[in-house]
């Protein structure tokens, strides 16, 4: 009888030890997975911001269309100034301006066109991947939008926003811990996910991780 009791107590101790271990390890594993997914998502949001800023430089506004942005990155071009040489001290002393030095062939300043994908991403880049949140499972697009905000002083400012909710970024992870994280963000009046830019205020195209 005593042996049976000892076995039962041993099994109870093993189960309790496992439950304690799980209660400690669960949030640790969740944080590691969350940090990895956040890092990949932030990198993609930075790429989106880079593309949107280049688009605005050319067209004077942002775009809220994935098709338009991806086509821009894949097919459009930007101007780039090729600079060879610079004014030397002797040129400056001789009162030779940069314009004059160019005319004399002493320095070169050429404006050339470079593909957007080369200028922004070095050429080796899948532009279509911009639209998708980089997480496992069914491909899910970032929410993308663009508009014009009128400031208190009456100035019209183009803005854009790209974002992904935690429910997408962290799908497949511990559901209760995702719920807890979202509740914490809402309590602090923060977006429960990752976002760059804003459609409600001019925030200099900042990300909410910065």
What does this protein structure show overall?
The structure is a single chain. The chain is of the alpha+beta class. It has one domain (36-210). The chain has seven helices and five strands, in the order H-H-E-H-H-E-H-E-E-H-H-E. The chain has helices at residues 2-59, 66-75, 89-93, 98-103, 116-121, 166-169, 175-187, and strands at residues 77-84, 108-115, 143-150, 156-165, 193-197. The strands form two sheets. Strands 3-4-5 form a three-stranded antiparallel beta sheet. The protein has a two-stranded antiparallel sheet with strand order 1-2. Strand 3 and strand 4 (156-165) form a beta hairpin. The radius of gyration is 27 Å and the shape is elongated. The chain starts with a helix and ends in a 13-residue tail after the last strand. The mean pLDDT is 86.
Order of strands, main sheet, comes to 3-4-5
From the alpha-carbon coordinates, what is the Rg to the nearest angstrom?
27 Å
* Overall 3D form: elongated
Number of helices: 7
Structural class estimated from helices and strands: alpha+beta
**What's the β-strand tally?**
5
How many separate structural domains? 1
Q: What's the story with the biggest beta sheet? A: 3 strands, antiparallel
């Amino acid at each position: 009888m005593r042996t049976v009791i000892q076995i039962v107590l041993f099994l109870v101790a093993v189960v309790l030890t496992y439950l304690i271990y799980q209660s400690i390890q669960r949030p640790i594993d969740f944080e590691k997975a969350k940090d990895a997914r956040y890092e990949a998502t932030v990198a993609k949001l930075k790429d989106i911001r880079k593309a949107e800023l280049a688009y605005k430089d050319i067209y004077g506004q942002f775009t809220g269309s994935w098709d338009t942005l991806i086509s821009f990155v894949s097919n459009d071009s930007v101007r780039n100034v090729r600079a060879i040489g610079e004014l030397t001290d002797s040129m400056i002393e001789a009162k030779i301006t940069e314009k004059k030095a160019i005319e004399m062939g002493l320095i070169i300043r050429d404006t050339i066109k470079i593909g957007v994908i080369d200028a922004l991403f070095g050429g080796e880049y899948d532009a279509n991947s911009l639209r998708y949140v980089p997480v496992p499972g069914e491909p899910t697009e970032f929410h993308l939008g663009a508009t014009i905000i009128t400031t208190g002083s009456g100035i019209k400012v183009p803005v854009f926003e790209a974002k992904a909710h935690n429910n997408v970024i962290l799908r497949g992870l511990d559901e209760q811990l995702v719920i807890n994280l979202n509740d914490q963000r809402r309590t602090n009046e923060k977006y429960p996910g990752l976002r760059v830019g804003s459609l409600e205020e001019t925030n200099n195209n900042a990300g909410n991780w910065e």
